[in-house]
């Protein structure tokens, strides 16, 4: 190898290290593989027509198909599933769908939702399915307000959609002859919805409602601020007994028995209200809906987080890192949001054990890799744990790398026209894109010698360049005519000119790690002939 080729190899190595280091830095939050990455191979999760084939879900991602694809690779050991997508979808909206009825006495019945876990691919454990929609529509920081009118944070929005498993479906009966009323809920098209009325003082629930101060003169001030699950929420969730729910009130604005459908006041904002105050207690809730049965529910909930994408449009490293931030945010928020009565495990491996106040058990797949299979490497065939920095093909389009915990995790998806062979993305064996017509008699895409280049090492036709094997000049430089093409006057291709790569202050560990990867790739290529 001449000096010029040495320099080219050095530059290639340097660029590779830069790219790998950037990816490594960006990926450090998700390398543990706690987010499922699901390709829409059928076109049913993110349909091109823009509407789901089952109108219960209407807008994509279509949750029933997304869940079925999730269960094709993961066990049925999650209470809830939560889906994101990097793609822009028609009429983007977030939605929480109760897959199972949590209890009697919470106002939710089959006339609102046809419960059927099998519709989602679950044998019976799945309770709630949530779609969070297009990632770009959510704030990068889950603690920031969602853009638009909602006036709640990204974390609170997740809690809101999870909350529809229990909330807000109830009526209230004041025992005054009027019977059950929907006044605690917002009204749309003359019917109560699944959100609390903004005239209901529930001390700022994530399910909307107000944080209302009685000014003592017939006026009231609704204050914006952080939101959580209220005492009534927690009773309906099975986390609080009836005796632990304090008396409540709402404002009967304009004398109506219909609740306000307005979104909450944002942090730092206020809203003035006038009207008679109506006090009530948990007994009025039970009178209208019956007692909660069972009285209590599980406090520790396991949620699987996933990104769904259309073929050819995989999530970026930044997309995966963003969902990882949301995953960690809701798990950290949950104990405080339930007054210490609940906990979440959002790890894909199911190894979370909750909190001291709300402990949970690890899932059966704990210790397996993110695909949830029984084998240490996740393939279910009993293989041993992998060796750090090894590569393999998860399928014909996906490369996995062995992380520092001895587990296989996603590294990259192959580009169009490539396939994964022996742990790296490469052209199909005959040089053409797989399953495509051959462009020339030898089955390759370009020259008759069967290579992308030619027998003399050039990038064009068989003899399109000088026979020295360089892209252009005979001395191996990038100029023509064949002078040395460097910044000094020396002849020859190894004159130590400034045409090479600059230096970097990159950590030695990163250089070593990248060198190992490159060496592995070169070794595989050499062994393959």
Care to give the gist of this entry?
The protein has 529 residues and is of the alpha/beta class. The chain has helices at residues 3-27, 63-71, 154-163, 231-236, 282-289, 317-337, 508-527, and strands at 36-40, 80-85, 95-98, 128-134, 185-188, 191-201, 208-210, 212-214, 219-223, 248-251, 270-274, 277-280, 300-310, 343-345, 391-395, 398-402, 408-413, 418-421, 424-427.
Q: Helices and strands in order, then pairings?
A:
Blueprint: H1 3-27, E1 36-40, H2 63-71, E2 80-85, E3 95-98, E4 128-134, H3 154-163, E5 185-188, E6 191-201, E7 208-210, E8 212-214, E9 219-223, H4 231-236, E10 248-251, E11 270-274, E12 277-280, H5 282-289, E13 300-310, H6 317-337, E14 343-345, E15 391-395, E16 398-402, E17 408-413, E18 418-421, E19 424-427, H7 508-527
Helix pairs in contact: 1-7, 3-6
> Mean pLDDT, as a whole number?
78
Radius of gyration: 30 Å
Number of helices: 7
Listing every helix as H and every strand as E from the N terminus to the C terminus, the arrangement reads: HEHEEEHEEEEEHEEEHEHEEEEEEH
Beginning-to-end CA distance, first to last residue: 18 Å
The unreliable regions are 4-31, 370-383, 431-436, 438-529
Strand content: 15-25%
Q: What is the helix content?
A: 10-25%
The profile of the biggest β sheet is: 6 strands, mixed
Shape: elongated
Number of strands: 19
Please identify the structural class as seen in this structure. Answer: alpha/beta
């Amino acid at each position: 190898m001449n000096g010029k080729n040495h320099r080219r190899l050095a530059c290639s190595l340097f660029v590779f290290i830069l790219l790998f280091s950037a990816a490594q830095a960006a990926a450090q939050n998700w390398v543990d593989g706690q987010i499922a990455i699901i390709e829409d191979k059928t076109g049913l999760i993110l349909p091109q027509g823009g509407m789901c084939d089952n109108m219960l879900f209407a807008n994509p991602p279509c949750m029933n198909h997304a869940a079925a694809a999730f269960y094709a690779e993961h066990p049925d050991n999650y209470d809830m599933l939560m889906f994101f997508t990097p793609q822009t979808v028609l009429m983007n909206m977030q939605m929480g769908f109760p897959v199972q009825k949590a209890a009697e006495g919470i106002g939710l019945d089959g006339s609102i939702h046809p419960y059927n876990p099998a519709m989602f691919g679950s044998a019976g454990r799945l309770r709630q399915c949530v779609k969070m929609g297009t990632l770009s529509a959510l704030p990068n920081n889950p603690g920031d307000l969602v853009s638009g009118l909602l006036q709640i944070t990204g974390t609170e929005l997740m809690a809101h959609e999870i909350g529809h498993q229990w909330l807000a479906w109830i009526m209230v009966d004041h025992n005054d002859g009027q019977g059950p009323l929907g006044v605690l809920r917002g009204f749309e098209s003359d019917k109560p919805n699944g959100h609390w009325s903004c005239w209901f003082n529930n001390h700022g629930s994530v399910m909307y409602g107000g944080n209302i101060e009685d000014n003592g003169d017939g006026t009231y001030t609704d204050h914006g601020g952080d939101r959580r699950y209220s005492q009534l929420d927690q009773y309906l969730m099975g986390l609080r007994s009836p005796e632990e729910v304090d008396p409540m009130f709402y404002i009967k604005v304009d004398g109506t028995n219909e609740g306000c459908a307005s979104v909450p006041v944002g942090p730092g904002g206020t809203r003035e209200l006038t009207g008679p105050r109506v006090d009530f207690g948990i007994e009025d809730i039970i009178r209208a809906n019956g007692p909660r049965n069972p009285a209590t529910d599980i406090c520790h909930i396991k949620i699987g987080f996933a990104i769904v994408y259309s073929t050819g449009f995989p999530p970026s490293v930044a997309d995966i890192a963003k969902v990882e931030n949301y995953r960690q945010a809701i798990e950290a928020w949950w104990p405080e949001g339930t007054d210490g009565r609940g906990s979440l495990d959002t790890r894909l491996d199911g190894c979370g054990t909750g909190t001291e106040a709300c402990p949970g058990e690890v899932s059966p797949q704990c210790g397996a890799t993110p695909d949830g299979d029984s084998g240490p490497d996740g393939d279910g065939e009993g293989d041993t744990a992998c060796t750090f920095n090894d590569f393999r093909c998860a399928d014909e389009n996906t490369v996995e790398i062995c992380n520092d915990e001895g587990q296989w995790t996603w590294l990259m998806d192959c580009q169009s026209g490539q396939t994964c062979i022996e742990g790296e993305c490469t052209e199909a064996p005959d040089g053409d894109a797989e399953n495509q017509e051959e462009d020339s008699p030898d089955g390759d895409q370009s020259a008759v010698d069967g290579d992308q280049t030619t027998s003399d090492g050039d990038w064009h036709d068989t003899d399109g360049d000088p026979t020295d094997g360089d892209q252009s000049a005979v001395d191996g430089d990038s100029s023509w005519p064949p002078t040395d093409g460097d910044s000094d006057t020396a002849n020859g291709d190894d004159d130590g000119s400034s045409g090479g790569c600059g230096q970097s202050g990159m950590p030695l560990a990163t250089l070593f790690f990248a060198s190992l990867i490159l060496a592995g790739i070169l070794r595989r290529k050499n062994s393959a002939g």
